[in-house]
């Protein structure tokens, strides 16, 4: 009977103690694009032009690259969700996130020194809906700020009196098919261990208690022989 109880307790404990299945992130890389809808004189000096008026020239272009965990895409009916972009094994910063504007070009991305927010990729009801990203940068002694909110972006020059002048603004093309050239990133992915649930921890404690109780029943006390 005690052997049966021992076997049963050890079997139950082994089910709990064996590490749970590890979830492997599924990183996917993709390209995206956009356009420039408004440009001021400052924008022209930075190599930017309206996309519609530029007829495909580099000065009117907006393009980028992103890598994200496909498992984190929210389902339909979840509203607007920002999924933070993070570094992962084997991926350079410009693989995780980068965006380029105009003909000079102006390049921004993951890991830049003056990032104030993001980058995050945005989904609305499970559909790609742009990015959240804010970064300050300096050109020719002047301070600028790029701000991306969903499908819209704006570039402004910051002044010392806390005001700003618009440089350019535009959009990222969003929708179900606008993350183009999607493909898995590499074959080796970092693994994330799932933390045991409270129920599993309780079962583990119960198993240990069962072993102790069983041992106590088999060996309730020790008998010491006194030499005669």
Helix and strand layout, with pairings?
Elements: H1 2-17, E1 27-39, H2 41-45, H3 51-54, E2 61-69, E3 80-84, H4 93-96, E4 97-101, E5 106-109, E6 115-124, E7 127-139, E8 142-150, E9 152-158, E10 164-172, E11 180-184, H5 198-218
Antiparallel strand pairs: 1-2, 1-10, 1-11, 2-4, 3-6, 4-5, 6-7, 7-8, 8-9, 9-10
Helix pairs in contact: 1-5
Please provide a written account of the structure.
- The protein has 228 residues and is α+β, with helices and mostly antiparallel strands.
- It has two domains: 2-20 and 198-216, no CATH class; 27-184, no CATH class.
- 22% of the residues lie in helices and 39% in strands.
- It is built from five helices and eleven strands; from the N terminus they run H-E-H-H-E-E-H-E-E-E-E-E-E-E-E-H.
- Strands 1, 2, 3, 4, 5, 6, 7, 8, 9, 10 and 11 form an eleven-stranded antiparallel sheet that branches.
- Strand 6 (115-124) and strand 7 form a beta hairpin.
- The longest helix is centred in the last third of the chain and has 21 residues, at 198-218.
- Residues 7-11, 13-18, 188-195 and 218-226 have low confidence and may be disordered.
- Average predicted confidence as pLDDT: 82
Biggest β-sheet description: 11 strands, antiparallel
Q: Let me know the number of strands.
A: 11
Spans of at least 5 consecutive residues with low confidence: 7-11, 13-18, 188-195, 218-226
Helix content: 10-25%
Q: What's the gyration radius in Å?
A: 29 Å
Task: Specify the number of helices.
Answer: 5
The percentage of residues in β strands lies in: 35-45%
Distance between the termini: 35 Å
* C-alpha geometry: globular
User: Could you spell the SSE succession in H and E letters?
Assistant: HEHHEEHEEEEEEEEH
Domain count, please report it.
2
Helix and strand content put the structural class at alpha+beta
